[in-house]
Write a structure and sequence with these properties.
Length: 331
């Protein structure tokens, strides 16, 4: 596939608000050993992108300084050592960065085929959320069929994916959201109960059910002691973000006496081998769910690549339900 040497990309001019995202001419990446270059059709927009833009989440030293952690498109070039992919293959992929661009490079083992029945637009929404939910809910959190699972922020990209995946795996799913409209959307996806946190105490709601066996939280701050109270004995709390702050005072006596587990992770800093293992698991266990319709990306809105700032205003408004994508080439 013929490629030019320069491309249009979205650069973070300086740390700040959404308006610091600006289109620029940028060199087209060249694949190294084990890497592929993707001609991007659609790029997913995620909160870590907004944190990076604000100067609060630096990319790893080896990653592109451009934002964008997931994309879909067509393989444009393959590096040495890549055996699975060929030029012209349609893929979606987890990225170390650089997705807000016409071309992006990533490890070949972090790419997955576009599931049957999905468009490239929908496929761009899969990698970041599916890698995150699988690794934290099912591997780190150990969710099993029949267990009570609480995911906060059920209307987010992570939340809508976690609700569907956990329900498909046989768990009882509970969630929180900030409006009746969002709660209704969560129920439609398979949540047994959606709690409007502005009107109801999720701790009381979960304790009335016997407590959550597993909680997935991205709020942090004051939610940590409340999550501990909402857990059943021997329950697990997995922390993946802290939208309201990373520090809080916690009495560990309850953690010890009730044998609770508090853990967490972030996806981006993990090694290539770990991410490749997650990709293999997803293709084996989750892609069949997508292809039979048990899991579908929930789409909120789309914006042109040049309008990336508008997409960031949208995600930071917290008014969205599901995923936001950038239209780069179409698909």
């Amino acid at each position: 596939m013929a490629m030019s040497h320069m491309m249009t990309a979205i650069q973070i001019k300086e740390p700040g608000g959404p308006d610091v995202l600006q289109p620029v001419d940028w060199p087209v990446p060249v694949p190294g050993h084990g890497q592929i270059v993707i001609r991007v059709a659609w790029a997913g927009v995620n909160r870590p992108d907004a944190l990076q833009r604000a100067g609060l989440y630096a990319p790893p030293p080896s990653a592109s300084p451009l934002p964008g952690l997931e994309a879909s498109g067509t393989v444009a070039a393959v590096g040495p050592g890549v055996t699975r992919w060929r030029e012209g293959d349609q893929v979606c992929a987890l990225l170390p960065g650089g997705g807000y661009a016409e071309y992006v490079v990533t490890h070949g083992d972090h790419a997955l085929p576009v599931p049957a029945g999905l468009s490239l637009r929908e496929a761009a929404c899969l990698p970041e959320t599916c890698f995150t939910v699988w690794s934290n809910v099912f591997l780190r959190g150990g969710l099993k069929a029949g267990e009570r699972f609480l995911v906060h922020g059920g209307s987010s990209g992570i939340g809508t994916t976690a609700i569907q995946m956990a329900r498909a795996m046989g768990a009882r799913v509970f969630t929180t959201a900030g409006s009746d409209e969002k709660c209704e959307a969560c129920m439609a996806l398979g949540a047994e109960r959606a709690i409007n946190y502005r009107e109801e105490d999720f701790v009381a709601a979960l304790r009335a059910e016997g407590g959550a066996n597993l909680i997935l939280d991205m709020v942090g701050g004051s939610y940590l002691p409340r999550n501990v109270r909402a857990l059943a004995d021997d329950g697990r709390l997995v922390q993946i973000a802290f939208l309201t702050g990373p520090k809080v005072e916690l009495n560990f006596a309850e953690v010890m006496t009730r044998r609770l587990t508090i853990t967490g992770s972030t996806l981006r800093p993990q090694g290539d081998l770990a991410k490749a293992a997650y990709a293999r698991d997803l293709e084996t266990h989750v892609w069949p769910l997508i292809e039979r319709g048990a899991l579908r990306p929930v789409m909120d809105s789309e914006y042109a690549l040049a309008d990336a700032a508008k997409a960031h205003w949208r995600i930071e408004s917290s008014g969205h339900i599901g995923k936001i994508v950038l239209r780069v080439e179409g698909g």
